[in-house]
Amino acid sequence: MKKMKLLNLSVLVIIITTGLLSCESDEGGNGTNISAFSITKSHNMGQNCMECHRQGGPGYGWFNIAGTVYDSQFTGTYPNATIKLYTGPNGTGDAKYVVEVDGKGNFYTTENIDFGVDLYPAVVGTNETHYMSTAITTGQCNSCHGVSTNRIWTN
Asked: 103-128: buried (b, 16+ CB within 10 Å) or exposed (e) per residue?
């Protein structure tokens, strides 16, 4: 009888442990996660942030736009710049969204971004503003920049 109770208890412990270990990481989930000037909690500069920061991914917050800004020599990141998404090319139209670049050169937001309208990015540094001449259809900036096209940069 004692052996049977011990066996049942062991099976119960195994089932509970397996259930707990199969849950997603506590760090994942869709919470608010927005970059801000001088904050240095971000990581993985230059990588596609949305590989992890997406529904079902291990990163905290499901990003709607994210990327990394570099200096003009592409040797280091450019912290504390600003990303603006305009409704017209080359800074025309309205600045519909503004995202601060953090202290490590990364920008990201979980705020809703409507990609159903034309959005034209601009990166604003201390001395220059650079415009992307084509409208974007996704916020995964590092999936192209640094892979199939130049990195995002400013001065």
From this structure: bbbbbbbbeebeeeebbbbbbbbeee
The answer to whether position 13 is within a domain reads no
Q: How many Cβ atoms are within 10 Å of 66's Cβ, its own excluded?
A: 27
- pLDDT exceeds 50 at position 100: yes
β-bridge mates for residue 122, sequence order: 84, 131
Contact in structure between 132 and 120 (CB atoms under 8 Å): yes
CATH code of the domain covering residue 67: 2.60.40.10
Structural domain range at position 147: 28-153
pLDDT category, 29, cuts 50, 70, 90? confident
The predicted-structure confidence for 49-99, as pLDDT tens digits, reads as follows 999 999 999 999 999 999 999 999 999 999 999 999 999 999 999 999 999
The conformation of residue 25, written as its DSSP 8-state character, comes to P
Cα separation, 38 vs 23, whole angstroms: 34
- Total domains present in the chain: 1
Structure tokens, 77:
């990141």
- Which of left, alpha, beta for 14 (phi over 0: left; psi -120 to 50: alpha)? alpha
Decide if 108 is inside a domain: yes
